[in-house]
C-alpha cells in the first residue's frame, strides 16, 4: 500500500514533467535563432553549456554520476514492477560508446493487460526516482558542512590543495590563506570576489593612483614605513623601454611625503612628482612586507603622524603597472609540526589568531591577477587531525554530488520527453488513452504526430 502511494505520487510528478518539458521544448524552438539564450537555458536546466570543455578528471566524475543515475532510474522501474506483481526477467548494465546504461526486462504484454494507472506508475517510476535522487544530492550538498563537522572545520580560511606557477614559490599544499591585501578570507567565494574586486580596481584609474612617465602608477593607499638605513642599501631604478626596471626580487618604490596642513599642497603638483621620481629606489620585497604600514592620502601633519612613520623612517609606496598587480597575501602553514603542537596546546577561541601569528607568513605577489587566481586550487574544509584525514575528500565528495545532481536531473527531464525509446513516449500514450475517451487507434495517431 505504501509503495502504491509512493509511485502514485511519482505518476503525478511524471505527468507534470511531461507537460513541462514538452512546453519547454516548444519554447526552445522559438529561441533556436538566439544561440546565447539557448546556451544559457541549457546551462541553467541541465547544469552544463553546449560549449563546455570537459577535462579527463571531469569525465571520470561524469561517468560515475551517469552510472549511478541510470542505475537509480532502472531500480525505480524494477521496484514499481515488483510492487505490481510483474516478474522481472533480468536487469542489465552496459556501456554504450563511452557512457554507461541500464535496462530492466519484463513481460510487456502482461503490463499492457493491467489497468492504465498501473502502467503509468511503472513508466513514471524511473523519472520519479531520478527526481528524488536529485533532491537527495541537493540535501547532502546543503548538509555537507554539518555531516563533515566532526572531521573537518568549514569556512575558517581556504586551504590550498594544488598550487602551480606563479604562486608555487610561496604556497604549498596544506597552507591556509588568511587574508588578501589586508581583507580576511574565510571561503573560496571570498577569495574569488576579492581578487575580482582588486583586479577591477587596478584597471580603473582611481584618484589615489598617480601615473608617472617611465614609472607606472603609485597608489598612496599602499605604503610602508621603511627605515632610512634600508634606503641607503636600495638600488637605483633603471629605465628600459619607458618602464622602470629593477633586479629580480626587487620592486620600484617612491616616497610618499608628509605635508604641513597649514600649507595647501596639490598632491599632483609637478614638484611632488619630480621629488618622487628622484627618490625612486629598487627594494627587496621580502625586506618590506613585514614593515609597518603607512597611508599617504590627503593632507598630513608636518611631523608625519598621519603617515604613521617615525622620524628615522620614510613612507614608501610600490610602483605598479596595469598588468602587474601588487598584492599582499597572508597565509598559515597549519600542518607543520610547530603549528600542530601549538593547536593542540591552545583550546580557546583565540586559537586561529595565535596560529596565524606564530605559524603564518606574508608575501608579496606582483603579477597578473587572473593567472594568480587560476594557479591555485582551494577548499573550504580543513582536516581537524592534519595528515590523518585527506584534505581532498570534501572537494571530491562535493564535486561528485554536484555532478550527480545535474546528471540525475537531466536524466529525469530527458526521459520525460515524448520521443522514441524514452519513458515519455509510453507515458503520453497511456495518459491519452486513460484520461480521454479516444480509441486506441486515435491515441496512437496523436502519439505519432507528437513524436514527429
Averaged pLDDT, please?
78
Outline the biggest β-sheet.
Answer: 8 strands, antiparallel
How many structural domains? Answer: 2
- End-to-end separation: 38 Å
Structural account:
The chain is α+β, with helices and mostly antiparallel strands. The protein has 2 domains: 2-146 and 398-451, no CATH class; 152-388, no CATH class. Helices cover 47% and strands 23% of the residues. The chain contains 15 helices and 18 strands. Strand 6 and strand 7 form a beta hairpin. Helix 1 (2-30) crosses helix 5, helix 3 crosses helix 5 (116-147) and helix 5 runs antiparallel to helix 13 (393-415).
Write the layout of secondary structure elements.
Elements: H1 2-30, H2 35-46, H3 56-83, E1 88-96, E2 99-106, H4 108-113, H5 116-147, E3 152-163, E4 175-180, E5 183-184, H6 188-203, E6 209-212, E7 216-219, E8 223-227, H7 228-232, E9 235-236, E10 238-240, E11 243-245, E12 250-255, H8 270-278, E13 281-284, H9 285-288, E14 293-294, E15 313-320, E16 325-333, H10 337-345, H11 351-359, E17 360-367, H12 369-374, E18 376-383, H13 393-415, H14 423-435, H15 440-451
Antiparallel strand pairs: 1-2, 3-18, 4-5, 4-16, 6-7, 7-15, 8-14, 8-15, 9-13, 10-11, 12-13, 12-15, 16-17
Helix pairs in contact: 1-5, 3-5, 3-13, 5-13, 5-14, 10-11, 14-15
Search tags:
2 domains, 47% helix, four-stranded antiparallel beta sheet, 15 helices, 452 residues, eight-stranded antiparallel beta sheet, alpha+beta
Amino acid at each position: 500500500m505504501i509503495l502504491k502511494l509512493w509511485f502514485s505520487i511519482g505518476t503525478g510528478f511524471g505527468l507534470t514533467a511531461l507537460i513541462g518539458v514538452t512546453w519547454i521544448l516548444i519554447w526552445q524552438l522559438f529561441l533556436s535563432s538566439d544561440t546565447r539564450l539557448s546556451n544559457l537555458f541549457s546551462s541553467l536546466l541541465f547544469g552544463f553549456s553546449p560549449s563546455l570543455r570537459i577535462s579527463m578528471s571531469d569525465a571520470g566524475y561524469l561517468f560515475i554520476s551517469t552510472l549511478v543515475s541510470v542505475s537509480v532510474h532502472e531500480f525505480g522501474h524494477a521496484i514499481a514492477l515488483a510492487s505490481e506483481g510483474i516478474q522481472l526477467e533480468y536487469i542489465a548494465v552496459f556501456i554504450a560508446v563511452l557512457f554507461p546504461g541500464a535496462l530492466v526486462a519484463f513481460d510487456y504484454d502482461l503490463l499492457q493487460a493491467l489497468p492504465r494507472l498501473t502502467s503509468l506508475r511503472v513508466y513514471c517510476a524511473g523519472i520519479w526516482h531520478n527526481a528524488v535522487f536529485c533532491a537527495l544530492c541537493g540535501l547532502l550538498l546543503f548538509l555537507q558542512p554539518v555531516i563533515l563537522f566532526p572531521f573537518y572545520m568549514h569556512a575558517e580560511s581556504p586551504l590550498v590543495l594544488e598550487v602551480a606557477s606563479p604562486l608555487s614559490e610561496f604556497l604549498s599544499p596544506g597552507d591556509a590563506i588568511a587574508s588578501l591585501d589586508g581583507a580576511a578570507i574565510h571561503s573560496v567565494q571570498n577569495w574569488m570576489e576579492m581578487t575580482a574586486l582588486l583586479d577591477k580596481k587596478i584597471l580603473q584609474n582611481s584618484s589615489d593612483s598617480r601615473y608617472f612617465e617611465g614609472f607606472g602608477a603609485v597608489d598612496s593607499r599602499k605604503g610602508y614605513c621603511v627605515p632610512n638605513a634600508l634606503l641607503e642599501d636600495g638600488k637605483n631604478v633603471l629605465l628600459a623601454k619607458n618602464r622602470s626596471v629593477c633586479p629580480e626580487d626587487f620592486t620600484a618604490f617612491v616616497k610618499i611625503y608628509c605635508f604641513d596642513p597649514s600649507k595647501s599642497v596639490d598632491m599632483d603638483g609637478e614638484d611632488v612628482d619630480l621629488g618622487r621620481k628622484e627618490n625612486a629606489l629598487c627594494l627587496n620585497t621580502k625586506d618590506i612586507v613585514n614593515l609597518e604600514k603607512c597611508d599617504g592620502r590627503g593632507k598630513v601633519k608636518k611631523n608625519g603622524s598621519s603617515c604613521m612613520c617615525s622620524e628615522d623612517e620614510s613612507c614608501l609606496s610600490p610602483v605598479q603597472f596595469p598588468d602587474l598587480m601588487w598584492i599582499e597575501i597572508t597565509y598559515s602553514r597549519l600542518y607543520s609540526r610547530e603549528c600542530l603542537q601549538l593547536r593542540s596546546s591552545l583550546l580557546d577561541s583565540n586559537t586561529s589568531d595565535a596560529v596565524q601569528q606564530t605559524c603564518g607568513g606574508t608575501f608579496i605577489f606582483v603579477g597578473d591577477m587572473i593567472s594568480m587566481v587560476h594557479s591555485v586550487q582551494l577548499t573550504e574544509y580543513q582536516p581537524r587531525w592534519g595528515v590523518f584525514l585527506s584534505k581532498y575528500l570534501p572537494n571530491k565528495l562535493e564535486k561528485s554530488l554536484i555532478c550527480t545532481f545535474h546528471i540525475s536531473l537531466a536524466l529525469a527531464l530527458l526521459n520525460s520527453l515524448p520521443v522514441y525509446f524514452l519513458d515519455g513516449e509510453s507515458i503520453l500514450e497511456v495518459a491519452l488513452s486513460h484520461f480521454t475517451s479516444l480509441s486506441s487507434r486515435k491515441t496512437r495517431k496523436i502519439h505519432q504526430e507528437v513524436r514527429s
